[in-house]
Amino acid sequence: MQNMETRYTHSPEDIRHYSTEQLRKEFLVEKVFVPGAISLTYTHNDRMIFGGVTPTDKALEIVLDKELGVDYFLERREMGVINIGGPGHIEIDGAKEAMKKQDGYYIGKETRQVVFTSEDAANPAKFYISSVPAHHKHPNVKISIDTITPMETGEPLTLNKRKIYQYIHPNVCESCQLQMGYTILEPGSSWNTMPTHTHERRMEAYVYFDMQKDTRIFHMMGKPDETKHLVMGNEQAAISPSWSIHSGVGTSNYSFIWAMCGENITYTDMDMVPMDQLK
């Protein structure tokens, strides 16, 4: 089974008047991983498609053609994949590779077929994917968290000690505009990206996971001088437009995958927001 929901873009003036329910409807994806299914969201913010592929007893393949005006899904797109579940496999144009938890993959445009499977239906792989338009074919590259030297940042005093693993990044592999990575907060830390920032030249999507059932994330969004928030549970995702801050704090430590696309692939291209400007 495959489902794809479309979300449209919004002006920051629009969300000024949104209720909690409407804000959640427009920017929160409550169910990313559905056992035995593909669950995708198409956001008109830079035309990113993201979501979960959760094979159980049968292989799953993303099939999108007429919806995108192409003959096959990745004809004019590139895609990143990170597995956050049990062990599985990914078969790319007939070449099959094992994918343990935290393994990732960059898959370039013109790749005709990508098939996802799990080794154990009772402990399925959870492939988080992000796909964006691309205009050049770059080589497919498997990426393991074990091969990445993380950026270690933050400190216990400010409750934001964390490791940032850059999967799809110029230091690791080539891409057209997609960047993708995995951030793990240390025990005792709860804040990510604070002081916060915006990047007018790129949008972003987050999926939060490795959370206990009774923990929550407060995902901050909105213009810096008019902030709003989404309360999120385990394995839920948020869309972050380019004009919005994107920062979170949890009731415990957690992990999240971030994916960005837009004008450039410069990770540090961001506009920091002084603390006294947050409202």
**SSE order, one letter for each helix or strand:** EHHEEEEEEEEEEEEEEEEEEEEEEE
Q: Give the assembly state of these chains.
A: single chain
How many distinct domains?
1
CATH superfamily: Jelly Rolls
Rg calculated over all Cα atoms: 18 Å
State the CATH topology. Jelly Rolls
Mean pLDDT: 94
* Secondary structural class: mainly beta
* SS summary, helix count: 2
Helical content (DSSP H or I, runs of 4+): under 10%
**Terminal Cα span:** 43 Å
Across the major sheet, the strand order is 1-3-4-11-6-9-12
Number of strands: 24
Range of strand content: 35-45%
CATH C-level: Mainly Beta
Report on the biggest sheet: 7 strands, mixed
Shape: globular
Binding site for Zn(2+): 197, 199, 204, 246
GO molecular function, one term: 4-deoxy-L-threo-5-hexosulose-uronate ketol-isomerase activity
Pfam family, one: KduI
Protein name: 4-deoxy-L-threo-5-hexosulose-uronate ketol-isomerase
Write the layout of secondary structure elements.
Elements: E1 2-7, H1 12-15, H2 20-27, E2 28-29, E3 37-43, E4 48-54, E5 60-61, E6 77-83, E7 88-92, E8 95-99, E9 103-107, E10 114-118, E11 127-133, E12 141-144, E13 151-153, E14 162-168, E15 179-185, E16 191-192, E17 197-198, E18 202-209, E19 217-223, E20 226-232, E21 236-240, E22 247-250, E23 255-262, E24 271-272
Parallel strand pairs: 1-3
Antiparallel strand pairs: 2-21, 3-4, 4-11, 5-10, 6-9, 6-11, 7-8, 7-10, 9-12, 13-14, 14-15, 15-23, 16-22, 17-24, 18-21, 18-23, 19-20, 19-22
Enzyme class: isomerase
Pathway: Glycan metabolism; pectin degradation; 2-dehydro-3-deoxy-D-gluconate from pectin: step 4/5
Protein name: 4-deoxy-L-threo-5-hexosulose-uronate ketol-isomerase
